Amino acid sequence: MNVDQKEINKFSALAHQWWCEDGEFRTLHQVNPLRVSFIEQRVKSLTGLQILDVGCGGGILSEALAKKGAKVTGIDMAKASLKVAKLHLLESDLEVDYRCITAEALADISPESFDVVSSMEMLEHVPEPKSVIKACSELVKEGGWVFFSTLNRNLKSYLLSVVMAEHVLKLIPKGTHEYEKFIKPSELIRSAKEYGLFPKIMKGIHYNPLTKTFSMGGNADVNYIIAFQKA
Ligand code: SAH
């Protein structure tokens, strides 16, 4: 199975923090409205769309998409996170179908089932990102959209996302990221094309430590998001 149990344990141990907006996952909460509007701009209206959120964690993105009227399925391999995600639905009064299954296994049983597949900040936590990219391509319908966000691999991204974010500014927990797992946009695009996903637009995601806010656009040196469309 394309799962790194160490990674799953790491996220499981922090599961109680998912909905703490100023807790360990605060950067995901902060960046969430930007990713939702990036997705919305591509698909025009989210209402009624079948969306799969791969590596959904506590459901930060899944819920935001459901709130916009999408029919969302969220999958993750950390049971503790899924428990938190399900519990949070009681508070938010939204519907999301949360399941403990890998993208690869779901692709075997439900191919071409989703209008949109998203996988945010997840590829850099799996042993074989290419296998997830392939599964996402199998899961999306023809003409559908697949969104990946991850971390670029270069000296700047190491300094900003590991040294600064984990150790100096303490924006995210120490040990969240392993530099070797970072993925260059060229690598992501090459794999996606191999599986029939074509890149439509890429944006960098930037953190401003002075204003403590995120913005989207400009260079993709560190964090980035790419929208792909299936032929
Ligand atoms: N996508 C969410 C959470 C990102 S954190 C967001 O951006 O808000 C990365 C998530 O990927 C964690 O919840 C972790 O449990 C999950 N994950 C790691 N490996 C996985 C795998 N092989 N299959 C499914 N989920 C996985």
Descriptive notes:
This protein has 231 residues and is an alpha/beta fold. Helix content is 39%, strand content 25%. It has helices spanning 5-13, 26-43, 60-67, 79-92, 103-109, 129-139, 155-168, 185-194, and strands at 50-54, 71-75, 96-99, 114-120, 140-151, 197-208, 213-216, 223-230. The longest helix is centred in the N-terminal third of the chain and has 18 residues, at 26-43. The two termini are 28 Å apart. The model has no long low-confidence stretch (mean pLDDT 97). Bound molecules: S-adenosyl-L-homocysteine (SAH). Residues 2-3, 7-8, 11, 28, 55-57, 60-61, 76-78, 81, 102, 120-122, 125-126 line the site of S-adenosyl-L-homocysteine.
Topology readout:
Elements: H1 5-13, H2 26-43, E1 50-54, H3 60-67, E2 71-75, H4 79-92, E3 96-99, H5 103-109, E4 114-120, H6 129-139, E5 140-151, H7 155-168, H8 185-194, E6 197-208, E7 213-216, E8 223-230
Parallel strand pairs: 1-2, 1-4, 2-3, 4-5
Antiparallel strand pairs: 5-8, 6-7, 6-8
The chain binds S-adenosyl-L-homocysteine.
